[in-house]
Task: structure prediction
Amino acid sequence: MKLKLIPAAVLYAVMVIPTASQAADKLNVLCAADNDWCEVMRNAFEKETKVEVSMVRKSAGEIFAQIRAEASNPKTDIWFGGTGDPHLQAAEQGLTEEYKSPALAQLYPWAQKQAEQSKYRTVGIYLGVLGIGYNTELLAKKKVTAPACWKDLIKPEFAGEVQMANPNASGTAYTAIATLVQVFGEEEAFKYLKALHKNINNYPRSGVAPVKAVARGETLTSVSFIHDVVTEAQANFPVKSAAPCEGTGYEIGSLSIVKGARNMDAAKKFVDWALTPKAQKIGQDNKQYQIPSNAGTPVPSEP
Result:
C-alpha cells in the first residue's frame, strides 16, 4: 500500500488558513461628531454587524489634514461627520471613494445634492444651522442684553466674552467665516472678524468646545451650531441660542469612504447602515439635534 505524503509546507498552510468565524471584519473610522455619539454609534454598528471598529474622535479639519497626509498609504476607512466643505474638498482632490449607497433614494434632496456635487464621493448625513450661544445666568449677572445679531458680538460689553473655534482645525469655524462673507461681503466680513478678534478669549480646536465653555460659565457667548446649544440646554445648563438677525448659514454634515480604504467592503456596509433611520436616530437618542438626512428618521417636535 502506497501512502501519499503531503509536503510539510502545504500541510502548514492548510492548518493556518482562517475560517469564516476566525476572520473578523475590521473598520477604521475617524469621527468628527460629538464624542458620545461616536462611541454609541461604534458600539451599535459592531453589535449589529460583528465588524470590529476602531474609532478616533477629531475635528473635521484635523481629519482632512490626516487623510491628505496619508493619501499614499491610507490608514482610515471611514470619515464620519463634520461640516461638508472639507468632505467636498477631499472629494475634489480624489481623496475619497465613489460609492452610491442603495439608501440614497431615501434621503432628503439636500443630502442627495451633496452626493451629486461630489460625484458620489461623499453624502449628507445631517443638517445644522449656525448661530450664537449664550449663558443666561452670566448675562443677567453682567446686566447685558442677549445677543441677537452678529454685530452684537463686537460690542464693548462682550469684550473677552466670546469664543469661536479655530478655523485651521474646525469645520464649524470654516462655516462661520463662509457665512460672514456671504452675509456681509468679503471686505466687510474680514473687517468684522478683525473687530470680533478683540472680544474673543479663546479659539478651541473643536467646533463644539465654545458652547461647552458657555454652558460651564467659562465665557458668556459662542459662535456655535444651534443644535449644539440645544444639546447643552437639554442637559440643564443655562444656555440659549439666537439665529443672527442679519442672516446665517448652515452645514451639511457628511460621510465619506477614504480612497484606497483597506477594509472597503466593511466601509460600504457602514455607509449603508449609517444612512438608515435606525442608525440616524442614534444621534437624537444621544441628544444630538441636527436634522437627519434620511426622510424616514423620526424627528421630535420639541427636542
Notes: Residues 1-23 have pLDDT under 50 and may be disordered.
